[in-house]
Amino acid sequence: MTLSVDEAGRALADPKAYADDARLHEALALLRREAPVHWVEAPDYTPFWAITKHADVLEIERNHEIFLNAPRPLLGTAEFDELNRQRAEQGIALRTLIHMDDPDHRVIRAIGADWFRPRAMRALEPRVKELAKRYVDRMVELGGECDFAQQVAVHFPLYVILSLLGLPESDFDRMLKLTQELFGGDDDELQRGQSNEEKLQVLLDFFAYFQGLTEERRKHPTDDLASAIANARIDGEPLNDFDTASYYVIIATAGHDTTSATIAGGLQALIDHPDQRKRLTENPDLMPLAVDEMIRWVTPVKEFMRTATRDYELRGTTIREGDAVLLSYPSANRDEDVFDDPFAFDAGRDPNKHLAFGFGVHYCLGAALARIEVRAFFEELLPRLRSIEPAGPAESIATTFVGGLKRLPVRYSLA
Questions:
Q1: pLDDT at 352
Q2: CA 351, CA 293: separation in Å to the nearest integer?
Q3: Which residues pair with 67 in a beta bridge?
Q4: Is residue 34 part of a domain?
Q5: What crossing angle do the helices spanning 241-272 and 104-113 adopt, rounded to 10°?
Q6: pLDDT at position 290, please?
Q7: Does residue 10 form part of some domain?
Q8: What is the widest separation between alpha-carbon atoms in the chain?
Q9: Residue 136 is part of which domain span?
Q10: Residue 361: inside a domain, yes or no?
Q11: Per the UniProt record, which residue ranges are transmembrane (predicted)?
Q12: Tally of domains in the chain
């Protein structure tokens, strides 16, 4: 059945579309070709413009003073948007870096920036490599067959980021469950419940946990990122409880869920493209390029929203003041005008101008860490991998925000 342009636009507001690569990319290709700036009216959602071309996503990202993150940084139902608005008025809403604009964004981002600079990443790299070996060894212990997404990919980045924060290992499983409930709020299997109140309760559980952590780190500072956040000062004053907890939430969740999606999706790509796996194994110097290709291929962050502060013309279409735009990163990363053969997985793709980390002032704070983790894992795995094949169907998370594979059953032989 051939999609209409309106049907293609509505796919962007359908969490199940993101669990079906063929359906999603058919819709996105149609929008890029016929309606790259398209007004979407989807049931239960406040209408928005869908932006699907790489150049246009870049243009809006560059114009961050015209297109603001607030008040609608992510795609949610109209009911959920209203509930968030009410909670913001009460001062109890999540307010992470992705919810902020300058000057707040610039000041708050600086609190954790030093922890993700190249020098800090070099210091962390031995720990990342140690954890990568632990999880490849874990594959050996699992006896040649496992659900790679559930048993390996989801845990390795979790250990890295929570170690950086300084959380005890006894709390890691709790953080994993909360993160999966947060990003899997539209997935029947992962969600805590279907009501907006139940989804918001996940955030409140995060806040309660991190409020306790903040109190502890303020009484007893330590040499970790959690302490840096807890004891940060803005104009001489500590962050309020919700801004502090929000900072923890974005580090603890975005810092591992996106990377685990890339590692699982990257392995699936190597299974589906054995010629590229052979090429990469025989040419390990290609690994930095292969890592970026995995990130482009998976694009774990599906969208961010922006709101226009004034009328703005894009491709002959006027976006009115107050209109929301959805930046589609999976679409930008398959744009035929930017990428040669965009639907081919190319372990040596160069250049690779993907936008999976965003662009400009909102460029992902943890991009360097994500690259180090993915590289460390595959540098450990590939030299030891003798064979690998699917052991059942892969399944993806239903989401409109962050996601990737939730199941990847594999059968393998490892040295």
A1: 98
A2: 10
A3: 308
A4: no
A5: 70
A6: 98
A7: no
A8: 62
A9: 56-414
A10: yes
A11: none
A12: 1
Tell me how far apart the alpha carbons of residues 353 and 406 are, in angstroms, rounded to a whole number. 27
**3-state secondary structure (DSSP) of residue 326:** strand
> What would the pLDDT profile of 204-226 be if each residue is shown by its tens digit?
787 888 888 899 999 999 999 99
147, 165 Cβ separation under 8 angstroms? no
Q: Which amino acid is at 68?
A: L
C-alpha 57, offset from chain centre:
17
Q: Tens of pLDDT along 125-169?
A: 999 999 999 999 999 999 999 999 999 999 999 999 888 889 888
For residues 308 and 125, give the distance between their C-alpha atoms in angstroms, rounded to a whole number.
40
State how far the alpha carbon of 128 is from the alpha carbons of 83, 97, 158, 373, in Å.
Answer: 39, 25, 11, 6
pTM for this prediction: 0.94
Tell me the residue type at 239.
L
Residue 372 contacts residue 117 (beta carbons within 8 Å):
no
**Quick check: is 83 in a domain?**
yes
Instruction: List the CATH number of the domain containing 165.
Output: 1.10.630.10
d(Cα 130, Cα 163) in Å, to the nearest integer? 12
Q: Are 317 and 59 in contact (CB under 8 A)?
A: no
**Radius of gyration of the CA atoms of the chain, in A:** 21
pLDDT (0 to 100) of residue 181: 78
